[in-house]
Predict the structure.
Amino acid sequence: MQMQLKDLGRGFSQPALCSQSVFRHALGALSRPASLQILEAAGALQGMQPPQGAHPAAAALLLALLDQDCKLWLSAGFMHSDAAAWLRFHTGCAVVSDLAEADFVWVAVASELPPLSSFSQGSAEYPDQSATCIVQVDGLQTPAPALAWALSGPGVKGSAQLQVDGLGAEFLAQRRASQLHFPCGVDFLLTHGQTFVGLPRSTHIQG
C-alpha cells in the first residue's frame, strides 16, 4: 500500500535549529565515545513524529545528517514501516537496496545488523567515503558494570565503560577485523529511545 503524504508524521518543528542541535550532539558522541547523548522531548524532539519502529534519537539523527545527496539502506525491520517515505520526504535522500552503495545504514534491531564486511568502507585515499551505521539497541548505560565494554582511543580519557544491550561478541569480532584496515571502516551511532552514543572507527573495545 502506497503511503500518502498526508499520512506521514511530522519532522523537526524548526528544521534549521533542530538539525543544528542534533548535529552538535552527534559530533559530541563521535568525538567523545561512550558519552551518553540525550535529546530532550522539549527540545529537538518536540513535535516530531518518528516512523513506526523508530527510536526518537535515531530518527532525529537521520533528519539532521541526511540530505538529497545521501543514499540510505534500511534493515528488514523497517520493511512495513513508513521510514523510507518519511525520510525521503523530509530529507530528500535516496533509499537503496544495495548495502555497499549506502552512505548511511539504519538498523531497526541489533540482530538485523549485516556483516560489517558488506558495508562501504571508504578507501585509503578517501576514508571519509564510508558508511555511518545507526543501530537501535535494547539498552545503553554509562558508567556501566564491570563486565561491560571498555573503550579506549581518541576522545576517551584512559578507559570508559559502556554497556550495550543487544550487541555481543560477534559484533566485536567483526569490528576488530575491520579496524585492521584503518583509516577505512564504519562509524556507529547506537540509539535507545531518546539517547545515543558514538563508536567511531578509531575507538578500541575490550569486552
Notes: The chain has one domain: 12-206. Residues 12-206 form a domain with the Rossmann fold fold (CATH 3.40.50.11310). The mean pLDDT is 93. The CA atoms of residues 67 and 83 lie 15 Å apart.
